[in-house]
Write a structure and sequence with these properties.
CATH class of chain B: Mainly Alpha
Number of strands of chain A: 10
CATH superfamily of chain B: MetI-like
Number of helices of chain B: 10
Number of helices of chain A: 8
Mean pLDDT of chain B: 88
Distance between the termini of chain A: 43 Å
Structural class of chain A: alpha/beta
Oligomer: heterodimer
Number of strands of chain B: 0
Strand content of chain A: 15-25%
Mean pLDDT of chain A: 91
Helix content of chain A: 25-40%
Strand order of the largest sheet of chain A: 6-7-8-3-9-10
Largest sheet of chain A: 6 strands, mixed
């Protein structure tokens, strides 16, 4: 579907001004240029107010850019949204309380007009992917935070989007659950060959997960540096490896430099 | 365990009611006030027995006014809430109007509605019920339709669906708990509205009229019997609303995991 030489995402000279002309005008992003290759796992990291969530929403075409161009799979971000080229996961799982787990996962498929039997087969596969086979008939209120977020990931992956956009998806989880979820998302990423853009404010999370760390600086939001992040492996041993620590301190240095 | 918990839930109010009725009877028996101040429960029960046919007819007449007025008020309220939350112009025109209507003491309009619809017509009583039920339904349902988790709206937008689909899939289910809270409130409002409206006009065989005419003839036990029938109507309607709530949104009553 996506040809190998078209980048998954191209951001060219993008700026975003909120409330232009108003007394509360804010320059959220200035002159952002970024290219993301298909299959990359890119994290956007930076202090609050650096515009990382805004940048993610520009790629999702949930907000429009004030200038510049955002291309997803070689087409405009808005066209990509209408073609359902991407899927999004938010900090809050955002499951619908009135749908059970299976029907939450099937929601995008319902909207796309999939037949019931095909939807059911797909949600069963997705429940296996996130290892929640026994919870199909449970309702969101009966799930823990980590389980709810896994259902949200299953919902996002249900229609095989080429691109997965994640906005601080583990920000509300405790440290143990968080590390477990990081392993899960890496496993899903390697099994499905999806391109991921992942917003976080955790340095270790960014270094553990991504092939590329985009360090952003605030007021106005800019890309301060892009770090190619190669780790030997991406399992729990990687969390204690020297290259992991080296890259963590490198990202920390870049973040500090960006603040000045 | 389940049976035990039902038992625990049912008996305390029954015992409390029995104690209250018993003390009522007992206190009147000791103090012996003039009979018209407060008749004892046994006398009211006797009045119900004597006027059983009249009371059941009146309950049916008033019950019809309450139910039809309630249904109409609820349907109008839901429609207005959907319009107000979907279209900006509707919000700007209907909301101030609804607030203004709510500022009017609606039951005070009963004599005026009698003039509009005819002194003996039940239409005026129904109009009072509709007007009184409308407002809580609009306000609560509109809140439920708008107070949606923002990321849930963003999620639906990310799927590139149209506004009406977001209303159907997210806003309406989200509004259900809000709506049922208002509906439960509306059932008791409807009973009050219908009976007070009947004090001023409408059919002569309705509960409100029996209360005023019996009180006028110092037949206080009869008046109390009609009041009792009115409260029964209220309890039944409230029960129906609670049942509808349970049936429509079983997911809402699952044990919440903290």
């Amino acid at each position: 579907m996506t040809s190998q030489n078209v980048p998954a995402v191209e951001i060219r000279g993008v700026s975003k001004v909120f409330n232009p002309g108003g007394s509360n005008e804010v320059l959220a992003l200035e002159d952002i240029n970024l290219e993301i290759a298909a299959g990359d796992f890119v994290t956007l990291i930076g202090p609050s107010g650096c515009g990382k969530s805004t940048l993610l929403r520009l790629v999702a075409a949930l907000v429009g850019s004030s200038s510049g161009e955002v291309l997803v799979n070689g087409k405009s971000a808005d066209q990509a949204r209408l073609d359902r080229d991407y899927s999004m996961v938010f900090q809050k799982a955002g499951l619908f309380d009135w749908r059970n787990v299976a029907r939450n996962i099937e929601l995008p498929l319902e909207l796309m007009g999939w037949r019931k039997s095909a939807r059911h087969r797909r949600s069963t596969e997705m429940l296996e992917l996130v290892q929640l086979q026994d919870f199909a008939r449970h309702f969101p209120q009966q799930l823990s935070g980590g389980m709810a977020q896994r259902v949200a990931i299953a919902r996002a992956m249900s229609f095989n989007p080429a691109l997965l956009l994640m906005d601080e998806p583990f920000g509300a989880l405790d440290e143990m659950t968080r590390e477990h979820m990081q392993n899960e998302v890496l496993r899903i990423w390697s099994e499905t060959n999806t391109t991921v853009i992942f917003v976080t404010h955790s340095i270790s999370e960014a270094v553990f997960l991504s092939t590329k760390v985009v360090v952003m600086s605030p007021r106005p939001g800019r890309i301060a540096a892009v770090l190619e992040n190669h780790l030997e492996s991406r399992d729990d041993t990687a969390r204690d490896s020297p290259e992991f620590f080296a890259n963590v301190s490198e990202v920390r240095k870049l973040l500090r430099a960006g603040e000045n | 365990m389940k049976q035990l918990s039902n038992f625990v839930q049912i008996w305390p109010p029954l015992v409390a009611t029995a104690i209250a009725l018993g003390s009522w009877e007992f206190l009147l028996w000791i103090t012996q006030p003039d009979g018209f101040v407060l008749p004892p429960p046994t006398e009211i029960a006797a009045a119900v027995g004597e006027n059983f046919a009249t009371i059941t007819t009146a309950t049916r007449v008033t019950g019809f006014i309450i139910v039809t007025g309630l249904v109409a008020g609820v349907l109008l309220g839901i429609t207005a809430a959907l319009l107000v939350t979907t279209f900006r112009t509707a919000n700007e025109t209907i909301t101030p109007l609804a607030v203004a209507i709510n500022a009017i003491p609606i039951v005070a309009l009963a004599p005026i509605f009698n003039f509009w619809f005819g002194l003996l017509s039940p239409r005026s009583n129904q109009a009072v019920v509709v007007a009184l039920v409308f407002f809580p339904i609009v306000i609560n349902t509109a809140r439920g339709l708008t107070e949606v988790e923002p990321s849930q709206i963003e999620l639906m937008e990310s799927y590139g669906v149209r506004k009406w689909r977001i209303i159907r899939e997210v806003r309406i289910p989200n509004a259900m708990p809000f709506f049922f809270t208002a509906l439960k409130l509306a059932t008791s409002l409807a009973v009050i509205a219908a009976i007070v409206a009947e004090y001023f006009g409408g059919r002569q065989d309705a509960l409100g009229n029996i209360i005023t005419s019996s009180a006028g003839l110092t037949r206080y036990a009869d008046a109390w019997a009609a009041v009792l029938a009115g409260s029964l109507l209220g309890i039944v309607l409230y029960g129906v609303a609670v049942l509808a709530e349970r049936v429509t949104m079983p997911w809402y009553f699952l044990a919440r995991r903290s």
